[in-house]
Structures are given as structure tokens and as C-alpha cells.
Amino acid sequence: MHYWVKASPSDFSGTLPKPRSGHSAVNIGNSKVVVFGGLVDKKFLSDIAVYDIDNKLWFQPECTGNGSDDQVGPSPRAFHIAVAIDCHMFVFGGRSGSKRMGDFWVLDTDIWQWSELTSFGDLPSPRDFAAASSFGNRKIVMYGGWDGKKWLSDVYVLDTMSLEWTELSVAGSLPPPRCGHTATMLEKRLLVYGGRGGGGPILGDLWALKGLIEEENETPGWTQLKLPGQGPSPRCGHTITSGGHYLLLFGGHGTGGWLSRYDVYHNDSIVLDRVTAQWKRLPTGNEAPSARAYHSMTCVGSRYLLFGGFDGKSTFGDLWWLVTEEDPIVKRLFSTSPNDLPQNKDLTTLNEDSNSAQESEQDSQGRHNAVVELGKSLGITISLSNPGLPVVGEMEDKEFLNLAYSLSEVEPSITGRVTQIEAAQALRKHWSNYNPRLIPLKELGPLLRDYQRLITHKYFTNDGPQSEFITTSLPGKDAHQFYHINSFRQLRMDDIPKLLAEYNQLLPD
């Protein structure tokens, strides 16, 4: 199980990068993430922002350099390629305004010096929205892009030692020309996914290119891969990041015009398992960040770091971690601070209903006094304080019912309609069979309220609390330990299996 955690000010020091999309972000070994360029409010950027992983510090280095026009570094741009080899970041192409770029730069991140490179051989044409990857510790392969007039399907290999470009001659069937795709080296193959094809359709195909490794003596050739599993929908402007035994795909956009508000933007996470060679949906326990495209996703240790992007209307500057459930920062999701997670609107509305709340409080006070008096006669102290919110009936708990009706397990009655009671029963059955490690965060609130509701139904009658509840609440007993919790945000990760176990015991046979 993975969780999305919005970066906290305590995660970093220094100056965070400005909002942007169409930028690049590369890992320099395990020590740095370097962000370059991008676009915000129709303004193209040329700044560098660096995240020092060891010191958890963002900073903007003072770069030196000398280009052909006496500039220090590359001109402002977005939708370029950037590839890291050792301590060097190579940058090619991109767009500034309506101009496609064809210049070639390298940044030495040890001394923060830019150099414009004069390359040789088969020089690629100026382009944006291409994709590239490194291989063999010294070479870069680039595929596709858009030159302002046509979509491209050419393959270029750059030797970063000799600075010679070679256009790769590929036999056999070719992928449709495209731009806005991803290109990722996996073992000895270049994997290309998605993008926008000639004529404008959004693509959802996966291709593998062999013949890049000279020692293999393979004839270069493309193969279309059709892998099993739940693959991603067609898209472009997404990211694919290598981590462990899988490749992680996130975001992108579907149908519509380039960066227009009519596009369908995505925030799903799909992995390509390198071991089983199949697509899988990444199980996540809470809601993902806002849908976006032309963002960046990099690996920082065992975590993924998401930054920036565009959703057709807004340019993002937020930073998010994608982490496993063992990561300590997951505890933030269960913080009691109201700023950490959005408040439940249905419960807020219920709280504002002062009449029902007062009635509930009066009834509760009467039950509480009865228990306290009984405790005095027994010579023990019994606490039966209510949860922070009134226990709401199933039919008044809108979030509970909405979740119940959304389940595919709900079967209609003979009338052809699903009653509220049937929906509630289906949701309870759904929870009774749930793996505690997989329960989504958004279901914890309704689950906790239903747990408290079942306790109320089982142990409280119009005549007051039953003796069975009092007995199980004596010191040394663990039963119903979550009855007094005000909010699911007070739960710890290791509380969830216990809560589900108690919940299952409360369900009627």
C-alpha cells in the first residue's frame, strides 16, 4: 500500500522552486535533484532549482558559463529533454514562445558551469516534446517530438564522450510518429509509451526498441508490446519513473487540444512490473494530488517526489511524496490537526443541527449519570464519555450511504431498487471482508462512525446502558477501545486492524 503525503515545511529548508510545467527534473546520483526551465503564465523559465537530498535543502546555484551568444546558460524554454550522466545534465531542444530549439547544453553540477556543445554527425532537427533516456553510462537515445510542422518518429543516439550524434536506421514496422510521450530504458530496450500522434490522436501503445547496445550485435528494430493487466488509458504529458522492480506511470492528459481546458487530466498511478511483465494499478490508501500533466516525478531514496504540472487552467507549484505505508511521514495523514485533511462536510452539517445535538446530549447525559452512579456503588470508576460528535443513524449519515451506494456488490431487491438498508448491509459486508492494510483512507471516517453506531445500537436502549457494556468497560478490558475517538484522524496505522476486528465482532450474525 502506498500513500500520497503533501510535503510539509518541515521536510525542506531553503527556497522552494517556483510553480511551473513542462520543466525537467533529473537525479544526479543519489545526492541531488536538479529542476530546469519550464513554463508559467505564458512565461518561459531558465532557472535552476536544486534539491540537496542529504541536507534536505532547496537552493538556486550561481551558475557560470559561456554560450555562442555570450549567454551564461540555455535561453528560457520548456518541453525540452534533460538527461543526467554522472554529474552532468545534458539539455537539448525545447520551445520558447513559438520557436523550437535545436541547441545542446551540458551543466556540470560539481562546479555549476554551463557549456554549449558543438556536436557532430547526424544533427537532430529543432524540436520540442521529444523524449530521451541514458544507456551504457555514456550515451543518450532520443525519440520523436514535434518540429512545428510535423510529428517525428526518428531515433538519435548521442555519444557524450565524442559528442557525435547518429541517426539510428531501424528496420521493420515503426511506431506512429508522436510527441509528448515517455522513453525509458529497461534492461537493454527503450520503452516508449503514449504521446500525441500524427493528426492529433492520443496514443496508448507501448513499443520496445532493440539494437541500442553495440555489444549485443542486434539489428535495431521496434516491437509493439501488448501486456496483460490494467494498463493506463491513452495519454501524453505523463511521467514514467523507474523505482525498484517496476516502472511507475503517473498523470498526463487525454483527449482535447494541447494544454487546453478541454483535455481530460489524470492523477492515477499505474506500475509496469518488470518481473511479471504486466500492468498493475498501484494500491493507494488516500486521494492522489490534483490531476495534471507536464509535471516531474523523481526518486528520492525510497520515496517519489512529485512537483509542478498543469491541469488546463492552473500551473502547480506543490510538492508531494508518494511513499509506502512503512514510511514515518504516513503518520501525518492521521494527525488531529484540522489543516492536515479536509473536514467532513456531512458531519459539520450534522453538528450545526443544534436541536438534534442538544437532544442527543441530554439523552447521553442521562445515560452517563446512571453509569456513574452504578460505578460508585461498585467502588470503581467508569468513563462513558460520548464521542465528540453525536452518533448519527445510518439513514442520516450521508457519507456512509453515498459510499454504500457506490459499491458494485450492492444487489437490488425484487422491486429493482436498492433500499438504504440493503446498501448499508452491503457496505458492512464489504468492510467485514476487507484487508486492513488495503482500506482506503476515505473510508475510515464512515467506518469509525458505523462502529460507534453499532455499539450504541447493541448496548444502549431507551432504559440506559446494558450491564454487558459496563462489564466490558471495566479496567483491564480492551473491548470497544475506539468508541470515544472523536475523529478517524486520531487513529494510528496499527489501530486499523484492531478497529476492523472489533467492528466484525459487532456485526449481527
UniProtKB/TrEMBL annotation:
Span list, region Disordered: 341-367
For this UniProt entry, which segments traverse the membrane? none
- Keyword Repeat appears in the UniProt entry: yes
Highest taxon of source: Eukaryota
SUPFAM superfamilies per UniProt: Kelch motif
Polar residues compositional bias, start-end? 341-359
Instruction: Tell me the keywords, alphabetical order.
Output: Kelch repeat, Repeat
InterPro entries registered for this protein in UniProt: Kelch-typ_b-propeller, Kelch_1, Rab9_kelch_effector
A Pfam family (short name) is Kelch_KLHDC2_KLHL20_DRC7
Q: What is this protein called?
A: Acyl-CoA-binding domain-containing protein 5 isoform X1
